[in-house]
Structure to design on (752 residues):
């Protein structure tokens, strides 16, 4: 577990409470509530989960369980340009791990971390459904196919 | 009810529609092995996540094997519970579970009482293929005042999660992470101490492995016993005498009061006293408070909070401090019997034998893990010296007795020491759900009406229903009593109090299903609720055998008030025997 200590402003709390209310404060809607919160805040630190726990009247331990179960949810803030490397079977056998290693080396961060200037964050995922382009890298909404370790520097340059 | 016919291991059986294969097999005397399934039917507690996959069987016409705990019977089903395919699958699953499990059985505190160990033996596992290169998980060990979490030993049966969330509604534990890192933990994988955990210990009571165990305080007790400068005083809770025998092979419900007393004396305790004495004292204080609040309430005094809630159970106290801090002036301010005992032992009794409280060590034997936390609370000490130094569970006492080579079965019965060992039948039934309020009624009735109570047993307050209620006639005054055991049931009554809908004058709450007899520190019942019922019956038997059955008739209690406390509810009694509660809601901190 790692998370940044944050202080929620009153309008942040109101936003989360509002999201919960829009789903009728129904614990069954937890995943939808978390989606909305992550879309708004970019990530789901402990403080947000606590407010959701109050809003949906369910234990925060259960919410943490769901957040840590689904890889889509994150407790650390994503960088301005979130980089995701597909490690699905097709990408993996075509060298995705070497591409990932190159990103780690270039950025000096591990999977799940962000650079100090918060420009980039690194994550891995399992199959984006573009196996024909393996290995696949996503930066924000942009997709890069057939990426080789040598391409990494140039990709990063695009975001300088 | 509609029944269906099916065949299991070539035997036909009729079962109601909706029955699981697991239960149908039980009807035929077929005991399908399982690690995660748990059924406490009298308490309406069932855990069937279908997670361990040990209970799989072959169903004719079905492609894959079926987990019997969560597969319902269908008409004409043909089930094989021990075909070669089933046995191989079961063995493979078990080998996988074991490959990730620490192999320190020799020194594991659960050894000999571990369901995983028993299962490995039952399935004839003699080697674990791949054990030398299998990865094993390495979780941080979490030690709280009461409970140790060693999640390397967790097999994800999720029984603890069922107890914590569905039964107790405490919500401290949840399954977190996925795949290899999956485990059960409090929010943000913090320590239990920073969660909403009440230390009720029900997770420990159902854990099949050594993942959840109690903090062991036997070494500290032993050290105190061998210290010549210390006078060591022991008190034993009512529920212990109805369960300790189980650890020595006796049938559930065997009363071992006299043998337990003899064993404690043989262990070297200087004074063997009884928490029951303090239970009688609790009734004096709590009963007086009840009558005071009730009579003020009847006179129209709106500052008199009704209902009054019992406060003997430390798991329950933790629960309302976490979840109902707005109601913290509703429970009785009377301390629990454990703490009343400590306060009296280190004042009245220490004075009597002429020693300083710092030279006295008070040990309690409790069916409970929350008591370990309770005795460490700051407000229960004087200048850093706790009223109760160490609390050990029934299970720890059994281990201690075995280590000291004491054969409890052959011991002659002995009596408790006086004055703090004398008790009435009213105090004995404290260990059962409904017992505290029954004991309180016996005394409150006589104090309120001034008449002798003819019918001592309030059987309408007894039973195993999660929430019970009864109206007791106090000579024309109807007193409405509510009873809940299990914190989920307590929550229902508390929600009513909060919303002003409660119709009760007094409510008894016990955190554990069955009351203290089903406590988190008791011998493990391994999912057999008959054990809990037998223990309850034993305490009612002990009550009937006592010559005195009302707390205010205890001659040593009368003497204690005469010589020392004055009268019930006096300033001195308040100072020593009452407490106050805290808002713990704000205390939940997120550590980063």
């Amino acid at each position: 577990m790692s998370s940044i200590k944050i202080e929620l402003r009153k309008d942040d709390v109101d936003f989360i409470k509002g999201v919960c209310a829009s789903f009728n404060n129904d614990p069954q809607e937890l995943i939808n509530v978390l989606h909305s919160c992550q879309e708004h805040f970019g990530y789901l630190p402990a403080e947000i989960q606590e407010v959701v726990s109050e809003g949906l009247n369910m234990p925060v331990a259960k919410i943490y369980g769901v957040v840590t179960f689904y890889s889509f949810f994150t407790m650390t803030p994503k960088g301005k340009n979130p980089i995701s490397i597909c490690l699905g079977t097709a990408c993996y056998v075509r060298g995705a791990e070497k591409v990932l290693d190159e990103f780690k080396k270039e950025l000096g961060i591990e999977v799940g971390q962000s650079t100090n200037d918060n420009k980039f964050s690194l994550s891995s995922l399992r199959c984006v459904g573009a196996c024909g382009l393996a290995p696949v890298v996503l930066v924000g909404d942009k997709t890069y196919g057939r990426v080789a370790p040598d391409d990494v520097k140039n990709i990063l340059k695009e975001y300088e | 009810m509609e029944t269906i016919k099916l065949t299991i291991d070539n035997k036909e059986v009729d079962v109601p529609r909706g029955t699981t294969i697991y239960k149908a097999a039980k009807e035929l005397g077929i005991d399908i092995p399982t690690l995660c399934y748990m059924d406490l039917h009298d308490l309406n507690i069932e855990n069937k996540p279908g997670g361990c996959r040990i209970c799989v069987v072959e169903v004719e016409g079905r492609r894959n094997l079926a987990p019997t705990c969560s597969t319902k019977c269908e008409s004409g089903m043909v089930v094989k519970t021990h075909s070669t395919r089933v046995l191989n699958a079961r063995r493979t699953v078990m080998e996988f579970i074991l490959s990730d499990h620490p192999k320190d059985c020799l020194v594991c505190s659960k050894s000999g009482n571990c369901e995983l160990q028993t299962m490995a033996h039952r399935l004839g596992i003699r080697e674990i293929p791949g054990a030398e290169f299998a990865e094993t998980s390495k979780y941080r060990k979490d030690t709280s005042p009461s409970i140790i979490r060693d999640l390397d030993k967790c097999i994800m049966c999720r029984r603890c999660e069922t107890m914590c969330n569905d039964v107790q509604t405490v919500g401290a534990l949840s399954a977190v992470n996925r795949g290899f890192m999956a485990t059960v933990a409090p929010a943000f994988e913090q320590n239990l101490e920073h969660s909403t955990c009440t230390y009720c210990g029900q997770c420990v009571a159902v854990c099949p492995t050594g993942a959840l165990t109690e903090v062991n305080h036997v070494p500290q007790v032993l050290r105190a016993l061998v210290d010549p400068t210390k006078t060591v005083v022991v008190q034993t809770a009512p529920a212990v005498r109805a369960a300790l025998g189980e650890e020595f092979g006796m049938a559930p419900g065997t009363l071992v009061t006299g043998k337990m007393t003899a064993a404690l004396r043989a262990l070297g305790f200087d004074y063997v006293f009884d928490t029951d004495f303090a239970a009688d004292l609790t009734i004096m204080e709590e009963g007086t408070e009840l009558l005071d609040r009730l009579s003020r309430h009847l006179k129209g005094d709106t500052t008199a909070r009704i209902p009054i809630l019992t406060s003997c159970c430390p798991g329950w106290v933790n629960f309302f401090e976490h979840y109902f801090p707005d109601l913290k002036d509703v429970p009785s301010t009377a301390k629990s019997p454990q703490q009343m005992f400590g306060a009296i032992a280190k004042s009245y009794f220490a004075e009597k034998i002429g020693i300083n409280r710092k030279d006295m060590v008070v040990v309690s034997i409790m069916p409970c893990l929350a008591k370990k936390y309770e005795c460490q609370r700051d407000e229960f000490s004087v200048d850093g010296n706790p009223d109760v130094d160490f609390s050990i569970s029934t299970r720890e006492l059994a281990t201690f007795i075995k280590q000291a080579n004491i054969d409890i079965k052959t011991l002659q019965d002995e009596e408790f020491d006086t004055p703090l060992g004398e008790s009435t039948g009213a105090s004995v039934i404290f260990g059962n759900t409904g017992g505290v309020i029954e004991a309180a009624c016996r005394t409150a009735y006589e104090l309120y009406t001034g008449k002798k109570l003819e019918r001592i047993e309030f059987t309408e307050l007894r039973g195993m229903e999660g929430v019970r209620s009864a109206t007791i006639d106090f000579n024309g005054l109807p007193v409405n009593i509510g009873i809940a055991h299990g914190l989920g049931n307590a929550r229902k009554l508390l929600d009513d109090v909060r919303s002003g809908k409660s119709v009760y004058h007094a409510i008894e709450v016990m955190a554990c299903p069955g009351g203290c007899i089903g406590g988190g520190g008791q011998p493990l019942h391994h999912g057999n609720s008959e054990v809990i019922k037998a223990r309850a019956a034993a305490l009612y038997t002990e009550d009937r055998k006592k010559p005195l059955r009302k707390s205010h008739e205890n001659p040593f209690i009368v003497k204690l008030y005469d010589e020392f406390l004055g009268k019930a509810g006096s300033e001195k009694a308040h100072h020593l025997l009452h407490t106050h509660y805290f808002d713990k809601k704000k205390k939940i901190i997120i550590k980063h």
Summary: Chain A has seven helices and four strands. The longest strand of chain A covers residues 81-86. The interface with chain B takes residues 1-5, 46-47, 49-50, 58-65, 68-69 of chain A (CB under 8 Å).
